[in-house]
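User: Can you help me understand a structure? I only have the sequence.
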Amino acid sequence: MPKAEVIKRPVEQVGNDIKKSAWFSVAESLAIIVLGVLFIVWPDFMAKIVSYLVGAFFIIKGAFQIINYFLEKGQNDFYNNELLVGVISVLIGITVLAMGGNIANLFRIVLGIWLVYESLVKINTAIKLSAVNMSIWKYVLLLALGIMALGVFVIVNDVTVVIGWMMIIAGLIGIVGDVLFIQKVDTLISKITKE
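Assistant: Let's start by predicting it. Here is the structure, written out as tokens:
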């Protein structure tokens, strides 16, 4: 087997992995759109549902850590803090459940931070695309800046319905950016294997 072929196969595998990752990102964007629609249609109900889900998550996670601490004999391990982390998780979960719909403000901030994080990931992708002279980097960068602006807007705005619309817009922008990227992965792999 020629040396170039040996090198090309792992690079092509990387290309397939990149595509899978991008399609997963598309699925995340679709989930955000669905959540956005639900926030628009039932804002108060969704705020309560989110608080119940978050509260239940922390309680279950904490209970698992507490049980695991005793099953794994964590009390004999000086550096095992699962009991402490578990108790704190359960307390956070109970607090979130008690707060009910008021937890929407926390959710809004977390969502905004997540959108800013997603935009930074896309900015990083745009920089890498620019480094290999892929013209699509400009579009990916513009979309990333749009997502960042939405993230900042969600962080500073406390209207649940507006948050729903921002989630829909952010999801659509994410899908467009990821699909554009997926279409250029093969070109990117070709450039890498020729160099």
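Now, to help you interpret it: The chain has one domain: 3-194. The two ends are 19 Å apart (CA to CA). Let me know which part you'd like to focus on.
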